[in-house]
Amino acid sequence: MNVLTSDINYQLATLYASKVAGVKSEYVELGNEFYLGDTDNRLVFPNVDHYAEKAMEWSSRIKRIPPFSTTKIAALGSESDVESQPGRRRLWLNRLLETINGNTDIEAITLHPYFKAKFAANENQACPIIAGIPIPEADVRSAFANIIRDSRELVNDEIAQIANTGRETWITEFNLFDTKHAVHGTWFHGLFTSSMLLTYLEGSNVTKILPHTMSGDGIFSGIYSNGTGLNFGLNAGGFLGPGYCTSPIPTTDAWELTALGNAVALITTAANGASEVRNVDFPTAEHYRWTLP
User: Fold this and answer.
1) Contacts of 262 (CB under 8 A, 6+ apart)
2) 252, 215 in Cβ contact below 8 A?
3) Dihedral sign, Cα of residue 132, residue 233, residue 261, residue 146
4) pLDDT digits (tens, 9 = 90+) for 122-159
């Protein structure tokens, strides 16, 4: 729901309209990433207390209307250990949970984790998708060790903190986000995000995991929306900087799965209808063991 530039009455009307249209309004997320320092975010929510108060007010209004009394409502949280970010973001989750303590209308907290590849080398100057250049094995090992470690820290810190309040965690966005290495859209990207997803399932209160985004180009999407999904120079407005991946080939087919889409689809197909997840160990199988840095 738009809690930034709209009002509660207008947003309630949208819920009614969706219900009339036959759309189930079972879950509501109150806003998006207001912990970022955008001007509008700061004007409406100078600090997290202002957001928390509005979230409690809106959730109460929604829950008191019979058609939406069973709708689950989530307030937005944030990772608290992003050292490069200002205090607004780092302190957001702690203060939010303190302010809404005792509130029963807000049943979940959302998180949007994004991580870099963290390769051993600082920059990959080529575009592996176009040039067919393999990613060095040392970089792959380093990247996967780091993403599993970072994702598990999220599970043991923020996700556990949310669980201690009796609330669900909804990961309504997650992905690789790396503007220094041209690896978006590759199989590395698909396996990287799959590692994130599988690790987040270790959180007992994680009930929703949605990669960002459904359709578009190969940078973030699970489904290509056109024939130039890997042409980052054309589609992404310089996501990787000038000169990266500007060739029109290789082409993609609209509505085919990206590397991310193919990798995540295997997990979602296996998990469809499941009520719980458990670790499975194959002690006699040959496998790699990577030492976490």
Assistant:
1) 190
2) no
3) positive
4) 555 556 555 566 778 888 888 999 999 999 999 999 99
